[in-house]
């Protein structure tokens, strides 16, 4: 029994080597294992395993990091490099890009409600600028001698006068609508039922105002003559021609 215990202790000492002399298990290598506790035996076995495997791992050099890992370490903030050998997944994570939404102030509630009265008051200074531009065009038209340039200036002047007339017409129609609204409010205050004009009735009022304006300016006769000529031409076109008879 003593010879076997001595042989075991010698084997433990040879496996531990010179470095294992400092460990507590090495101190107990000369002792008899029968005198050791169960905990001490487990400690000796663990030291044996570590000492057996340690020279093997220490003898080899640690593996160098691959190029792929180096690239990933160098560019941590960059995009992740996918391997060409592995197939790309069907549903991969894509960074969502915020879509730019274009806003049209004509149809957006943020721009407020369009009110022609406030708009005309706010941009009333443009009327004086347009008037100055019209006067400049008239002066250039008088001084110009080039035929082509004169035609262009005349077309520009005609367009300016047409815009001015259209603006005046719109302003008058707004004033008419405002006067009708005032009448409706007064009727509602008196307890009467308010009335709403039809399109045909509004058209009659417009024609009556136009007739009064032409009579005031002295252009009524010329306007009526032109109107008669147009009506005569229309009637002539409506009549059956001699070929069809």
UniProtKB/TrEMBL annotation:
Return the Basic residues bias intervals: 225-245
Q: Per the record, which residues fall in region Disordered?
A: 1-85, 160-195, 218-245
* Localization of this protein: Nucleus, Nucleolus
Q: Where is the composition biased (Acidic residues)?
A: 1-11
Query: What GO terms in the biological process aspect are recorded for it?
Result: maturation of SSU-rRNA from tricistronic rRNA transcript (SSU-rRNA, 5.8S rRNA, LSU-rRNA)
**Keyword terms:** Nucleus, Ribonucleoprotein, Ribosome biogenesis, rRNA processing
Q: Where is the composition biased (Basic and acidic residues)?
A: 29-42, 172-189
Q: Which GO terms describe its cellular component?
A: 90S preribosome; nucleolus
Task: Note the Pfam families from the entry.
Answer: RRP36 (PF06102)
What is the protein's quaternary organization? Associates with 90S and pre-40S pre-ribosomal particles.
Chain's role? Component of the 90S pre-ribosome involved in the maturation of rRNAs. Required for early cleavages of the pre-RNAs in the 40S ribosomal subunit maturation pathway.
Q: Which family does it belong to?
A: Belongs to the RRP36 family.
> Any idea what this protein is called?
rRNA biogenesis protein RRP36
Source organism per entry reads Columba livia (Rock dove)
